[in-house]
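note to self: dont lose this again. the chain is below, predicted strucutre after it. 299 aa total, dont forget to put it in the shared folder this time
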Amino acid sequence: MVTTKEILRLPEPILPGHAACAGCSSSLGLRYALKALGDDVIMSIPACCTSVWQGPYPKSAINAPVLNIAFAAAASAASGISAALQAKGNKHTTVLAWAGDGGSVDIGLATISGAAERNDNMIYVTYSNESYSNTGVQKSGATPPGARTKTTPSGRVGWPKDISLIMWTHNLPYVATACTSYPRDFIDKLRKAQQMDGFKFIYLLAPCAIGWRFPSEKTIEIGKLAVETGTHILWESVNGDIELSRLSKRYVDPAKRKPLSEYLKDQGRYRGVSKELIQDYQNYINHQWSLIISLSKVK
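---
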């Protein structure tokens, strides 16, 4: 496990002057990612919040080579970069595809699946703010039950796609979930993925102050509550073997989880939502825990 002091000593990969919102989790997550992976990284970024806050062309606040690409094509572009590096005999540069949930769970899912099926050598991180935050906070395939967005003004009905398990079914070398509120866990998983060949996928929960309607100073607190209430389960899979991460193992027993209401109370996207939709969210959480436990080493 990486220490906090080690994180603080790492070079800063995000330059001053970027345009991220106050409390932005995507900028925080990318800061951790590039600290973890080092300075020998080439990035592929589709249309998303990151493609905007990094700064207008020809400048960029990201201190790494970046290919800004069409909404659906982050994985395809990363595949091309990976193939070019392989052709040059370059085995040391890390290819990082960094995309939001809209460009991963929905628009880019086909190209991600194709790159995964080919086992192209890259790390693909989906930072999820559970909506299309960059275009006005519309529902995405990752929007949880009950959440209000511009396109679900009364609360989202139905359950989201679990892209982490979708990618797990591709029999990949590495799949994991993480949260920006737990940087050491995220950095450890990135470094583990970096040591493996093939397609590695990480789903990173990135709370969005604007889209979720909470005060920007509560970004870290909200992310922690997602884990502590069992809403977001931290796990990893190495060659198909799923194991709960240390931070989530303590919440296998539902009695040890904080009430869902603790997580939702500061999120304006849940204000006024019906009790039925909140219960639907709780049912979804219970189902996800049963599913992950049934697939994991915890029985």
